[in-house]
Amino acid sequence: MKMSKNSNRVAKIRRLDPFYEREKEKYENPLPSREYMMQTLEAAACPMSESALAAQLAINEDEQIPFERRIRAMEREGQLMRNRKGALILPNKADLVACRVEGHPDGFGFARPETSIGRDKSADIFLDNRQMEKALHGDRVLVRVTGTDRRGRPEGSIVEVTERANTEVVGRVFDEYGVRYVVPEDRRLHTRIVLAGEPVSAGGSRRPRKTAGATPEIQPGQVVVAEILEQPGKRTLPVGRIKEVLGNYADPGMEIEIALRKHDLPFEFPQAVIDEAALLPEEVVVERDLGKREDLRDIPLVTIDGETAKDFDDAVFAEALPKGKGWRLVVAIADVSHYVRPGSALDTEATARGNSVYFPRRVIPMLPEKISNGLCSLNPDVDRLAMVCDAQIDANGDVTKYRFYPAIFRSRARLTYNQVWSWLSGEAQPATVVHQAVQPQLHTLYALFKTLHAARFKRGAIDFDTVETQMRFNEQGKIEAIVPVIRNDAHRLIEECMLAANVCAADFLEKKKQPGLFRIHGTPAPAKLEALRDFMKEFGLGLEGGDSPTGKDYGKLLDQIRERPDFSLLQTILLRSMQQAIYSPDNIGHFGLSYEYYTHFTSPIRRYPDLLVHRAIKTALKFEKVPLPATEAAWEEIGLHCSATERRADEATRDVEAWLKCYYMQDRIGEVFDGTISGVTAFGAFVTLDQVYVEGLVHISELGTDYFHHDPIRHCLIGERTKQQYRVGDRLRVKLVRADLESNRIDFVPATAIDEAVQPTEATRSDRDALAQERSRKTGRPVAVERHLLDMEMDKGSATPRKKGAPTGTTGTPAGKSRQLGGHGSGGKPHPGSGNPASKSPSKGKTKSKPKAKPAAPTAVKSRGAPKPAAKPAAKGASKSGAAKPKAVSAKPAAKPKAAAKPNATNRSRRAKT
């Protein structure tokens, strides 16, 4: 009887849980839902001990351990927290916000509420440098809002770090004052990791201490992976140990090795994944795999991809419908979900990766090669399994009918974009029998494309005119050229076919009320809309649509400005006003494409959301029962994760490309280029060069003898006295003065007539390369490292490679005048929030002397606050916080130093900034 009464009580309490049925579907032995646990705490109106909450929820002995695990998980995710007595409370009762930390290279950071990640940044909470001592970039924290900063942003303090994001860090080893430490390559990790066995002193108010352990013999400057043994505290630096030595900074491929670890990208498949992939068949077996699938092997589907593509996950076919009723479009997508099953090792790893990552010369695939380049690659003349979107499209470009089904098919030909376009444009004719056979359907596809493309503009999709580039490498792996990617109508043809299939997939999920992931793109944030309209007013332009403009309104404005000479500027501002597209189960449409329903269906080999959409479609078709995320919250979580892995891949590829571009530009220091201002900040103007598509900074101190104010609304820098403006879209001729591999920073200065008259020659580069090889033989360091050190020395005026007996100044620099670093290359990096120009501080060991000749164009910048004419440099060029103090910039160029700078001078300067 007692057992019966207890069971009745449990059942009664569980019935009060509005989400209990969901939990029963998800778990074999369900607990009360997280929502009900928080409701119970809310109703209690006071803190509850863990045991009291368990009693209130009728948690039995068998449920105790899972219940405790759930409590821990809710604490980690900021749904629950404990007071000083250890009792459970809701964060909102303590005015706390669960956030993820985003660090900044200058030491401050932002706490981004978990609910706004991937969306608007207006809810971000500013964390000053002292608060950031407690946490690192990526950590999960509970933050209390304490007020507003001088810009009106909410400011807060970190109450607790609920989850650490960084257990390993990639960086370079340095020695300083008897301390060995690692400087992270990720500048958002604003600290140094002291290696175990070294005395630790953080400077300022942090307590020095001695760590245990020993540091292995590693050369300063080498790239390593450090495991963090002790996380940072309010007065202590993090402590770690060397886990892996990657090599020297300039080793070939090092930029990718660093990016993989810096962004925590999985790049090696676990043994369980390799073993599971090995068990998959080598080829499709029709008798075994056909089953309920439709047989499309008589339809001449073809793949159209780039010349270097290795994985082909989509094939297309089109035919005209009778009586001019439009077209039938068949899009066959590799059926990855047939081989990658939920809960398998393959699926777990694909989830963690989220997507394939495409670096120059290297791909990190989401799935093992046996799947991506084998079983699921739609190679010609072999049977392959596919998920098919079979649609009918009318003469207006509208989809009138569609259906989805699993199929088996055989690609008739592997074609390339350039090949197809040469046939469609009449520049060439197909030479082989196979290519001649598919020629008619290619023309049908092209006719369909023209209709879909016209419908795209009628719909109001936004079509930005941007330039995509690619790098061409030589046999040594060095960039030969950076060239624009030329898109032709064959590219656009495939793009329109994929868009049509994606729209059909989203519409199918919506109509079947099948939960899944949508690719959503929200309307611009109100603050950005207001700023955009304020900017456009200055040009006599306006954006229609009121508070809720549509993509059509944006497209109309874009068409209005397309022929204007300032189109580049206006398009850039339009683009920056828009949000980033993300994955979500909550379908709000796609603003940029002007679609009511949109998802990603066409690339399951390289995108995990597409794989989930395939599973959802199969479930809706009742083709097979596939386990899917059971709740809206679970779908939301996987959507956030996939959005984050997409951003992670973008950031990693940008890092690698920036390093390679910087390496490429080292050979061109001293050259003059034409470019366009692509961005302005409080500390200078970013310029993108015309011919090489490389972006660099013209520091504000190089713009002239005036105060320059940053106007964020008008996207320009304005001289206080001269009223001279530097605005996004303006043309500017610049000279390259610095390409620093360590910081991936490229610096320019405005070019003068003398700069244009005296340009480095090929002979100059040969002299430098010969000297680098000679020094490499003596030091044992790689030639690339010696070349880099020579460039840095040349920039500082301490070394100039020249032919034996040649007078100084024969290498592209006028005699008696040394090349000076522009921008803030020698001093501390200016605070991005500062409205005043940062100024240069002399490097250690340099002395000022009267120049021998007056410079052609003065680069003096007055420092706001009227500094004294002869400001003395701070000791070692840094303040207590480690950032170099701004100094008054002299109108006179620094004289050539008496002694050559040591090779590690760059490292020393970098440490001062860290």
UniProtKB/TrEMBL annotation:
An annotated GO BP: mRNA catabolic process
Record-linked PROSITE patterns: RIBONUCLEASE_II, S1
Q: Care to name a GO molecular-function term for this sequence? A: exoribonuclease II activity
Chain intervals for the UniProt region annotation (Disordered): 759-914
**Reactions listed under catalytic activity:** Exonucleolytic cleavage in the 3'- to 5'-direction to yield nucleoside 5'-phosphates
Task: Tell me where it resides.
Answer: Cytoplasm
Is-annotated flag, keyword Transport?
Answer: no
Top EC class per UniProt? hydrolase
Principal location: cytoplasm
- Its Enzyme Commission number(s) read 3.1.13.1
**SUPFAM superfamilies, per this entry?**
Nucleic acid-binding proteins (SSF50249)
Mind naming one GO cellular-component term on file for this protein?
Answer: cytosol
Family indicated by similarity: Belongs to the RNR ribonuclease family. RNase R subfamily.
Task: Output this protein's name.
Answer: Ribonuclease R
Natural source organism: Fluviibacter phosphoraccumulans
